[in-house]
UniProtKB/TrEMBL annotation:
Domain Thiolase C-terminal as annotated: residue spans: 254-375
Domain of life: Bacteria
Gene3D superfamilies (alphabetical): 3.40.47.10
Listed name of the protein: Thiolase family protein
InterPro entries, per the entry: Thiolase, Thiolase-like, Thiolase_C_2
Length: 381
C-alpha cells in the first residue's frame, strides 16, 4: 500500500463573512493550500469536496480552472469533511492517483439547522415530537448519559469554558472572547441541560488539504504529516444517534467507536499514543461522550479528567485545541477538515499561542454527523 501525506493545507477563517459565498471561501482555501505547496491547480489530479448549504463543491472548477480532473461531491452530514478526506486518502493509497485535494466549505443561514424528516427517511411525527430539532435531541442524549455515568452540569460548563479560552488563541476561530464558567452556567437555557454557550452555531468557513503519495511528495520536494489512518463508519443496531428512528433500552456500540477502532487498528497505535485530539463537539455533551466512545477514557471518567485539566492545551491529552465547533462554529462541509488542519498545524509546531507542548507526534480527529456517521483520521509528524 502507498503511504499518504498531507503536504499542504489552506483555511478560510470561520464565522460570518458578508460579501463572500461559501464557494468563494472554498476557492480561497484551495488557493492558499496550492500557494503553500508551490503547486498549480493544473497539477491536481483529483478532488473530493463537500458542502451542505453552499452549493456543489465541484462547481469551484469554474474559478480554479477547467482542467478535466476527477471531482467527486461528498454529502455525509457533519461527517462530510471526514468522508471527503477518506475518499482522497483511499484514492492515493490504492495507487489510482498520487496528488489530490480534499476540500470542504459552507455558508449556513443564521439560526439553528432546519432538517426535514422526509429527507432522512423518517415520518412526519418524528419532527412533530421535536426529535428533528438537534438542540433537543442532543440535550436528551446528554441527560441520559449524565444520569448513567455521573456527569455534572458544571463539567458541561468547563468544556465550553475551555473551548472559548482556546478560541481566543486561534486566528481562524469565530468566537474569540473568553467566557467564564459562571457566565456559561447562568446563561439562558436552550434545552436542558444546555445553556446558550454550550452549543455550537452554524456558520461559514472552508478548509483544503492537499494529499500526495510519499513518492510524489519527495519528487516535489515537499514534506508533510503522514496520514496513518482514515476510517468512516455508520451506525450499527442499538446505537442511539441523531435522527435514529428507534432506541434500544440497552445502548449499543456507537459509529464513533467503530470508526475509532478501525483507525487505531489501521495506524497500529492506541489511544494512549495520541498527543493531541480534535473531537466532535456540537455541544458540550458531545465532547464528553466522544472522549469515551473514541477510547480515551472510560464512561464517567470524564468528570475527573476535565476537573483536573487533562484536556486543556497543557494537559495530558489536549482536546479541541482551536476551540472546536463551540468556538469556531460549524460550517458542515468544512468542520471535519478543520480538525485535521489543526492537527497538522500542531504537529508542525506552528500553532503559536495554542501550541501543545512536548513536541507532539500523533494527532487524532473525530467527526460525527447525522444520521449516525463518524469519521476518524490519525496523522503523524
Amino acid at each position: 500500500m502507498t503511504e499518504v501525506r498531507i503536504v499542504a493545507a489552506g483555511i478560510h477563517p470561520f464565522g460570518r463573512t458578508p460579501g463572500l459565498t461559501g464557494l468563494q471561501q472554498g476557492v480561497f482555501a484551495v488557493r492558499q493550500a496550492l500557494a503553500t505547496a508551490g503547486l498549480d491547480w493544473r497539477d491536481i489530479q483529483f478532488a473530493y469536496g463537500g458542502s451542505d448549504a453552499a452549493g456543489n463543491a465541484d462547481t469551484m472548477v469554474s474559478e480554479l480552472g477547467l482542467t478535466g480532473l476527477q471531482f467527486i461531491n461528498v454529502a455525509n452530514g457533519c461527517a462530510t469533511g471526514g468522508s471527503a478526506l477518506f475518499g482522497a486518502y483511499s484514492t492515493i493509497e490504492s495507487g489510482e492517483f498520487d496528488l489530490g485535494i480534499a476540500v470542504g466549505f459552507d455558508k449556513h443561514p443564521r439560526g439553528a439547522f432546519d432538517p426535514k424528516p422526509a429527507e432522512w427517511g423518517l415520518p412526519d411525527w418524528y419532527g412533530e415530537t421535536g426529535l428533528m430539532l438537534t438542540t433537543q435531541f442532543f440535550a436528551m442524549k446528554t441527560r441520559r448519559y449524565m444520569a448513567e455515568h455521573g456527569i455534572t452540569v458544571e463539567t458541561l460548563g468547563r468544556v465550553a469554558e475551555k473551548a472559548f479560552a482556546n478560541g481566543v488563541l486561534t486566528p481562524h476561530a469565530w468566537r474569540r472572547e473568553a467566557v467564564n464558567l459562571d457566565a456559561i452556567l447562568n446563561a439562558p437555557l436552550v434545552s436542558d441541560p444546555f445553556t446558550k454557550f454550550m452549543f455550537c452555531s452554524p456558520g461559514e468557513g472552508a478548509v483544503a488539504l492537499i494529499l500526495a503519495s510519499e513518492k510524489r511528495a519527495r519528487s516535489l520536494g515537499l514534506d508533510g504529516a503522514k496520514l496513518r489512518a482514515a476510517a468512516v463508519r455508520s451506525r450499527p443496531p442499538g446505537s442511539f444517534e441523531v435522527f435514529s428512528p428507534a432506541l434500544d433500552i440497552a445502548r449499543g456500540v456507537s459509529p464513533s467507536t467503530l470508526a475509532s477502532r478501525a483507525a487505531f487498528e489501521m495506524a497500529g497505535v492506541g489511544p494512549e499514543d495520541i498527543d493531541v485530539a480534535q473531537l466532535q463537539d456540537t455541544e458540550s455533551g458531545a465532547e464528553i461522550m466522544h472522549m469515551a466512545e473514541n477510547g480515551f477514557c472510560a464512561d464517567g471518567d470524564q468528570e475527573a479528567w476535565i476537573a483536573d485539566g487533562r484536556t486543556r492545551i497543557d494537559g495530558a491529552l489536549p482536546v479541541n485545541t482551536d476551540g472546536g465547533c463551540l468556538a469556531c462554529g460549524e460550517p458542515i462541509g468544512a468542520s471535519g477538515l478543520r480538525q485535521v488542519y489543526e492537527n497538522v498545524v500542531q504537529l508542525r509546531g506552528q500553532a503559536g499561542a495554542r501550541q501543545v507542548p512536548g513536541d507532539p507526534r500523533l494527532g487524532y480527529s473525530h467527526v460525527y454527523g447525522a444520521p449516525g456517521v463518524s469519521g476518524v483520521a490519525i496523522v503523524e509528524r
